[in-house]
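Priority: medium. Attachment 1 of 2:
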């Protein structure tokens, strides 16, 4: 589902939007400037209210994955070292 919504800030620059849970691409539109992609936010069913910056800075599954891959690679290296040690001990 693709939904487009916009909100104009008040004189102090404040704005508020109530949104359903889901993933949103945030684009800033400032008169006289080209559109600027601010990022992608994810609003979960249990998300607490917050600022746009709160959601733009929130960790997602994609942020966690690289660390998990690094740990997996370390485990593979350790298993490889252990297998080599077992092979050497068996040959001796």
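Attachment 2 of 2:
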């Amino acid at each position: 589902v693709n939904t487009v919504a916009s909100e104009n800030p008040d004189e102090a620059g404040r704005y508020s939007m109530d949104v359903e849970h889901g993933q949103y691409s945030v684009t800033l539109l400032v008169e006289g400037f080209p559109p600027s992609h601010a990022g992608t936010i994810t609003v979960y069913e249990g998300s607490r209210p917050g600022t746009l910056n709160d959601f733009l800075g929130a960790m997602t599954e994609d942020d966690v994955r690289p660390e998990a891959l690094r740990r997996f690679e370390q485990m593979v290296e350790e298993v490889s070292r252990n297998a080599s040690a077992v092979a050497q001990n068996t040959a001796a």
